[in-house]
Design brief:
The complex is a heterodimer of chains A (about 400) and B (about 350). By secondary structure, chain A is an all-alpha fold. Chain A contains 18 helices and no strands. Chain A is globular and about 70 Å long. The chains are: A mainly alpha (about 400), B alpha/beta (about 350).
Chain lengths: ~400, ~350
Amino acid sequence: MYVNNIQQEGEFNSQLEVTAGTHLKRNNNSNLSESLKKNLFDGWKNTLLTVLTGIFSLIVIYQVITFVVTNNWDVIYDNLRLLMIGQYPIEEIWRLWIALDLVSLLIGLTWGLWKGAGKAVAATFGSVFFVFAVIPWTTLNTSLNLTASIALIAVGYFAGDRLDGLKIPTLILWALYIPLALGLITGFGGLLEPVLSREWGGWLLTVIIASISIIGCFPLGVLLALGRRSELPVIRYFCIGYIELVRGIPLIMVLFIGQLLIPLFLGGETGIDNVSRAIIAYTFFAAAYLAENVRGGLQSIPAGQYEAAQALGLNKFKLTFFIILPQALKAVIPALVGQFITILKDTSLVAIIGLADFLGTARRISNNPEYLGRYMELYIFVAAFYFIFCYLMAHVSRHLERSLSKGNQ
Amino acid sequence: MTKYAKFFLGAAVFLSLSACASAETDGTGAGTDNTTSGSGATLAAIIDRGELNAGVNDSLPGFGYVDSDGNYVGFDIDLGHAVAAATLGDSEAISFRSLSAQERFIAVQTGEVDVLLRNTTWTTSRDSDVGMDFGPVTFYDGQGMMVRTESGISTLADLGGRTIGVETGTTTELNLADQMDALGIDYNTQTFDDRNALIAAYEAGSVDAWTTDRSGLVSSFAVLADPEEHMILEETLSKEPLAPAVLHGDNQWNDIVTWVVYALIQAEEFGITQDNIDDFMDSDDPDIQRLLGVEGGLGSMLGLEDDFAYQAISQVGNYGEIYDRHLGPDTQFNLPRGMNALYQNGGLHYSMPFR
């Protein structure tokens, strides 16, 4: 019930959605022409607006479809490998396929075991794989690998659906996935042919930077938020200082500090490559913003919750991690996911420090003399790809929010 | 009050700790400086590593870009291959690092790259204050201005009251202001973040003219819808000599880069190409014998193998071949040699004698 008191953006949005949903439902019950008349042609002003916006939308849709259909997209398919994995050596691509197969299996298992939001994730990944597998210019090898990934999603689903005992192994595999995938990509520190980070690029680099930063900034942000409310002044002032300092500096500045000043201070041979420096910069930057989001959640917990927990005799650790944090985090899911989406999109800023992420690779390709002036196709492709994955994150967050707040309805 | 006292105590502890830490890093910092600078250290490090690290541009058509297979290609890239062939005997023993304009000098200063081949203009401040040393100019560029042929603009003076498009954060913006102030012309500027956006605005007619380096203007003809409708004004707004840069302090390494570039230019002057170089090996001309390392031992004076020039030319080609491969008549840029021709053809490229 306390959740209802929170003035959170996401709560507000889902309330709006509920209203809109019931509104639509009511319309569906009456017949079509009546609802059209009521909603679109209600009086001459609305009729005029409907006609004008209708004409405008038709023109835009027509133009977009003409562009998409008549345009020559060879700049995308000639450079698809570059866009997806950058300069990753072609003879080592099998490692990326294994990493992709593994995540497909995990997504399938998660969908089968817990249902819910896993379905949307599995559907999105499956559709993207499917589209790339069937478009005619994909090589046979790529098609087969993508088909294998789709099959693994299905296998995972059926296995998860039938065997409840897979829950623990799946969670363990998820926890191990990032180190495992990174090991595969880099070569397990010399076990396989090492692939240096400067050879990563495109969507691969974007995903690596974004996922590690997201996973890294979360615990850091939660600790900072708790530290900001600590009773120990040193910790409290340190956290406040850190959060305010980082929030007072633009992200580009933080990236430059990471990229340019760290090697100057520590000497060139620090062994920290520039991808890691970027990841560190993103993690520390995002943690400060995340801490403020989490603090918003912490402040929304009524004092009664603390008092009740203390009355039950819970110690400070249990009080924080079993009573307060779960409620606080649940309350701020929309803000947290918003932060994660921002990180994913902000990774495109690494282009200014010489890394070729997804957008940076598109910019590189548009400067290949063979494709000069073909930036429109590239940017549309990049925008569509970003949109699919950002929307997926938003969708999963809404789902999570709904399923977690069932107890309060 | 006790609360504040605690805070100050904490602050004092923190400060003393950080003072210790910084004293420590000062010590190690000085140590690394001693080992990385000094003559000969760079070459030794490259031979030890087995590959050359070159800082390059990844998005300048013709000079440095990435092809569909992910390989670096371009004029500056081939110069890097030539340096690798001369120092290590293998033009592929090189790893490229894309650098943005902002971070390029830091990457040289920290030793992340051994040589900067990224269309860098040789200027006083970069040679002194920034701590670079430059090799010979590999490409003479200059800032130019593109206008529509029908606009009636034929000199910079005709641009009075017109709108000129420039890219932000480049020296072109400053050069434009300097030049127009000197001529006393009133004009408007519109700045763009991105070359493509600038060209699109120019084509749409929202700017009357746009300016960047002439090489960039020429390469943009490939993008324009009707290249015949546009022209580049005769006047140049600035000198832009593009040269390879290395870290100041290692004279031997600077000499190596310098003489590799000269070898490429000298080879063109002698007519030695990638294909016919073996015919020159038994040439009687002592100049050619010294260049190719048949006699004279010039390579070992530089700390290299005597055949360093042979390796560079046979694996990459002479200056003219590199130019034609990326910018010449067979490419879509078809950039006239102009100032970049050899001195006997009216250009500025002139190799110091191999002796």
